[in-house]
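Researcher: Structure for this, please.
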Amino acid sequence: MGASLAALGFAFAMFWEILWALVLGFTLSAIVQAVVSKSQMSRLLPDDSPRSLAIACGLGAASSSCSYAAVALARSIFRKGANFTAAMAFEFASTNLVIELGIIMALLLGWQFTVAEFVGGPLMIILLWGLFRLFLRRRSVEEARRQAERGVAGSMEGHATMDMSVTEGALIERIFSRQGFTAISHYFVMDWGAIWRDIAGGLLLAGALAAWVPKEFWQRFFLIDHPVAAYFWGPVVGPIVAILSFVCSIGNVPLAAVLWNGGISFGGVISFIFADLIVLPILNIYRKYYGGRMTVFLLVSSYAAMVLAGLLVELGFMATGLVPRERAAVVVEPHITLNYTTVLNVVFLMLAGVLMVRFFRTNGLAMLRMMNQPEGGHGRHRDLTEHRPH
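Model: Predicted structure, token format:
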């Protein structure tokens, strides 16, 4: 009982530490989604050229950080004619190049990890592109397209395809317009609804590991007494830990903090964060979307790209002296005091309250019910958001 309470205490303490940053990150993400339309994605990604990959990364960075929604939207744009490689680049950018991930990583792990994430993310996508070019056969893509056309249900498909963006007028006008405010509130609440399980699961798992697993175990597991071997072992084993943890999206950052304090290498943390799109539940969705053959290919190629990207980031940051010398990730004891974190939490909870009021006053619950409906089964989303508050 005492160990369980200690684990819950660690989980709550980490949640309290990052709460304001989560609200800020989701608000910024909602603003971006509210002014960037999804409707033209397929047309903008016709091939796997550098231009298409750059556009895919930009669109992904402007999208939701929910891994399940990213996977569903990637299939949607693939079905509508987008190139498969570009769709996968969009998917990986959606979870590795988003605003909220960078904020939480800086808060829990340090700014060096945020920089490494935004350097390593494009690098991983380039490596994935190279592997696709070398080993992905046209026949496999055609088989995957036929399976995708069957429309087998996965997860968060309604959320992935909802487009409530405001595209008319100047950028500031769109953000502060009545329709823009409504769209921001809807994206904000639905993004929370999409990934709260991952955040809660990641915090609980991180709390359990912090409370129950002695640091000596992690130090042996990550070969801390063999520095040279540890540099290579970290990126290799990081994605495997992620696959088995079942936690994806932002939820794996608290766990990454525990692993970093335990002794995993800098590159191992980065490859662990990258692996949110090959956790076991996502692999099962790949199987439904693209078939068994493509699922195996995505697992192997993604894992290879993650390991190589983590190792290259490790070497590059070591050469420039940016790898932190101390392992001081935020895994805090359970307590609340009157400090800047508490003040920021109160301020941003008030902001969240304003957005939630707007959400519920503009048919938000109806939108929320559509999040798990199959693609094309929820009608026109914009009609709901344009209703007058009641």
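Researcher: Any notable elements?
Model: Residues 19-371 form one domain. Confidence is low (pLDDT under 50) at residues 378-390.
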